[in-house]
Amino acid sequence: MSEPEAESTENAANPLSRRSLVKGLALVPLVAAGLPGCSERSSGTSKSAVAPGERYTPAFFNAEEWAFIVAACDRLIPRDEHGPGAVELGVAEFIDRHMQTPYASGDIWYMLGPFIEASAEFGYQGRLAVRDILRVGLGAIDAHCRSHFDGKSFAALEHARQEALLKSAESGHLQLEGISSQLFFAELLAEVRNGYFSDPVHGGNKGMGSWKMIGYPGMRADYTDWVEIRDRPYPLPPVDLAGRRG
Amino acid sequence: MAVTQPKVDAVIVGMGWTGAIMAKELTDAGLSVVALERGPDRDTQPDFAYPKVVDELEGSVHRKFLQSLSQETVTVRHKTGDTAVPYRQMGSFKPGTGVGGAGSHWSGCHFRALPEDFRLRSAVEQRYGRRFIPAEMAIQDYPITYEDLEPHFDHFEYVCGTSGRAGVLNGARQEGGNPFEGSRRRDYPLPPNRNYLGAEWFYRAAREVGYHAYPIPASNASAPYVNPYGCQMGPCNFCGFCSDYGCLNYSKASPNVCILPVLRLRKQFVLRTHAQVLRVNLDRARERATGVTYLDAQGREVEQPADLVVLCAFSLYNVHLMLLSGIGKPYDPIANAGTVGRNYSYQNLNRVVLFFGDDVQANGFIGNGGAGTTIDDLNGKQLDNAKAGFVGGGIIWARQPGAGPVRGITVPPGTPGWGSAWKRAIKESFRHSFYYEVQGACMSYRSHYLDLDPTYKDAFGRPLLRMTFDWHENEIKASQFLVGKALDMCKTLKPKALSGDAKQTGSHYNVTQYQSTHTCGGAIMGADPSSSALNRYLQSWDVPNVFAPGANAFPQNNGYNPTGMVGALTYWAAKAIREQYLKTPGALVQA
Q1: Which residues of B are catalytic?
Q2: Which partner for B140 in A173, B67, B372, B555 could form a disulfide, CB atoms 3.0-4.6 Å apart?
Q3: Domain encompassing residue B312
Q4: Is residue B591 part of a domain?
Q5: pTM of the model
Q6: ipTM of the complex
Q7: Distance from A212 to chain B by nearest Cα, in Å?
């Protein structure tokens, strides 16, 4: 929602808030770089997808799939004036690791047949688990790209075209071989958000970058002293499961 | 060959609230009890210990503390004649598993039913005439009264350390409580929890429109507490990981914290976990249960003989076990005959979200599962149903069980789901928005029921339970009416944006979105054995040494959370077993 009036009142009432947050974000890569397991990266290339570092070698995705995931992460949560992007926070690494968990192979889903079509109110009724939805879906989009765009893969396309394809998948208009583009997009976006927001122990959200952006105190889990305080923002930075402070 | 265990006095299926209460009461009476729990053992230490328990990916995506659907689930369809499909991914409702059951990952809202909820059909007929109730609506009176249950509501609140404020004490109205509640014998064991911003503002909004706001009774301790069993609870620290999570702080009442510490020390109590009960075994005449058969942790079939079988699984699985075991006659919606499976109902939950500027510190990450503020002005007999145009009422509340970004950040309507515009919106919304909810009653209908699915099987080869349910026009009208009232309240708070999700006319039940775990009915209690599976003591009409306490006993659902009622009903049934059944085993009510 963008109501310019509300916006300006808000800034007038609290001129420090947004500006200082944005300023503060410039520090994120420096802080993150000092943390163990974090990759080095250039903070200046806001336009292009920067791989989260050479130190992580994908184990689930092959090189082409990995390129797709990194590009998609960069489109879905780009680095911008609001805060860090998914790529610099290691979301691709998160997804690669998450696809190797029991959850991604259908551990908590009912996976027995028969598999019959039903209306959307009944949820996904197919036989693919999350990791297969991602792998089959991104393969189908890459195949679509190669046949429509001079043999180029999704990752090799211009950003605007990548965004258009993702929008088309989101709405379900994109017709893919063997899988619903809408299903694929929904799982992809859920995974990107999971990686962006989950505790850094799972491989994404490096340096608690997303938590700092939205003002989430992370895993503090004790707000006894702040329940009834109304007149100022919650003051403490996040902590993660490992006890690190953001 | 099945292994056979030595016979015991009572076998209990499931170790959530109802199982723990029954085990406590029956061992108090000197019975030997074996409890069979399909999931793992769980306790505050080590399972809910900080910091591991507050991992949002584990709790809210991997759903570590909920039932996995991989082995057992239900199938769902909207109407008879449709083909039901499995509930494959957790969405609309979230049954638990493991010791504590859903009682370990609930939020803590702990209501009593209203006196008029017990005689719903009579009350509606009396006030609005018989014809006001649609022909297909199957609502019934409870076979008991509020007064019957009052001592048990009271006791369960004291077991749980419920924090609240009495509205009517021994017939006298009390300032600050719910003026419309049934009279209580004494106040809550603990005072209400403190208010976060949304709950405090709810008072203001309610005053503006003339409602009587009061603190939601919450089984989240507001102060240190020792319950009548000697179990200790610590004050809630508003950690924000309540719904879906076990409590890290001994603050949220659960079977694990409030009852099991006593049970675990009892020699006549045996708890077997990873014990999946497959069926209740009956004698040839199908008039008496001889025990149960379960799969043990190694996958062996084991027979557990017992004189008394108490079904204490989640409401849906209690009905499932009755159908699989041939206890009572399955319900047939066409003939309107049979009892097991009938009167399935749910909860009519709707949400309104209020978005503010960054000068409003809503801090949704601060959370206390059950606490908050609510009103009863549109519930029970306060609501003029003829004017409103539907049967049943509901409550509007401010609750804040704790938000985190993996659990989702609500953004104003029209915001894209990704990209820079989304990022900006989540930054603006996360700390500066909160929500109010409408929790509406849900009536039962002739066509809404549970039976066995003809196609789908669980991992043990048994037919899945099939749910036939959809939103009826009555509930859609209620949703629109109550959400409208909630929006009127919200507008007085002048949010910069507001969203409401009232059900649209013609919309259908959607299992993909979480609404409520309050699945009710299917094995209901009643006065007439031709229209209820259980008598007034939660005893099977057909197999009198089987009792089935739980929300499965509700003939329809009211506007409240069911746990307070479920606990009270279980104590009520346990009292009948102890004081009547054990003296003369057999039917406690003559059919």
Answers
A1: 518
A2: B555
A3: 3-581
A4: no
A5: 0.93
A6: 0.96
A7: 10
